[in-house]
Amino acid sequence: MTNSSYSEELRIAIDAVVEASKICRHIQSTEGFSELSKNDKSPVTVADFGSQAVVCKAIHEAFPGDPIIAEEDSAALRLPDQISLLERVAKEVKTLFPTATSDDVLAWIDQGVSRDAAPRTWTLDPIDGTKGFLRKEQYAVALALLVDGQVEVAALACPNLDTSESDEIGFVFSAVRGEGAFVAPLSDPNDRQPISTSGCTVASQARFCESVESGHSDHSWSSDIAHELGISRDSVRLDSQAKYAVVGRGEAEIYLRLPTKPGYVEKIWDHAAGCLVIEEAGGKVTDIHGYPLDFSKGALLADNQGVIATNGVLHEEVVAAVKKCNG
Ligand SMILES: Nc1ncnc2c1ncn2[C@@H]1O[C@H](COP(=O)(O)O)[C@@H](OP(=O)(O)O)[C@H]1O
Ligand SMILES: [Mg+2]
């Protein structure tokens, strides 16, 4: 592992998302895991809570002074009619920490309820792409360290992601600012190999990816943009920050996230880890207007709209095409 000033943060972060992935995989392999609907109508499962407990425990124990801005909180698990859900979460967490109690689990989850920008802040999406997780498709455990509003460390586990190079399924991507981006199989997280974005310079040959959910990104707008760029092949649709991973390792050149309804503001935990992985792999990430993502505003990307992530070379051309097609 690297000798950078963030080597400890990187080691702890990778280990935390790898451990959380074990819980997610175990839950996904069992039939009939519970699903709740949150206030914003998005789903949440035993795995979201279990993953958040495991990662927040690790980060809080290693860096007790650092706040964590994570997606979930324990409120739903504290309701009297959700006692069996809490027991289920605790049972999963006990597979890693046998002495953990339900109260421990609630407290670990609530280590992630910070919402304010601080000089050093972690941000966590315990299961990014919960809809993909429910469909048994792509999802990610995404963890990043922000220092003075800039992403400095990223660990992004994609437990269902495959590769054309081997039969391996499940990878952890990681990056420290200024030190490159890496991938390792979840089965051997220390085997970190450098990744880089594709060298494709011809927009019409670019492969682009987007959300499966048309409610998360405007599919008809993206098809107009692809047409404008001369791209004839279909987009690859996959859930979660696995899209950032795919562009980061050079298997696609463009990831478009195009706002579908006025008023939706992107959350930092949906982008921080993936953004650094792409930037350190040689790519570029901005919003749809070409502005850098501003992670200094607390939990929200309050000053940004949507996302354009590319291999770098094609970025300005894609931003211009998005502008021209204009929703
Ligand atoms: N209207 C909307 N526009 C954009 N993103 C949205 C959205 N509603 C929900 N999301 C976010 O989209 C994420 C999934 O992204 P993707 O479509 O790339 O898989 C969700 O993360 P969670 O699954 O962690 O809740 C959620 O935060
Ligand atoms: Mg998410």
UniProtKB/TrEMBL annotation:
EC primary class: hydrolase
Gene3D superfamilies: 3.40.190.80, Fructose-1,6-Bisphosphatase, subunit A, domain 1 (3.30.540.10)
Keywords on record: Hydrolase, Magnesium, Metal-binding
GO terms for biological process, alphabetical: phosphatidylinositol phosphate biosynthetic process; sulfate assimilation
Entry's EC annotation: 3.1.3.7
Keyword Transcription regulation: no
One annotated GO molecular function: metal ion binding
Obligatory cofactor(s): Mg(2+)
Name of the protein in its database record: 3'(2'),5'-bisphosphate nucleotidase
Protein's organism: Bremerella cremea
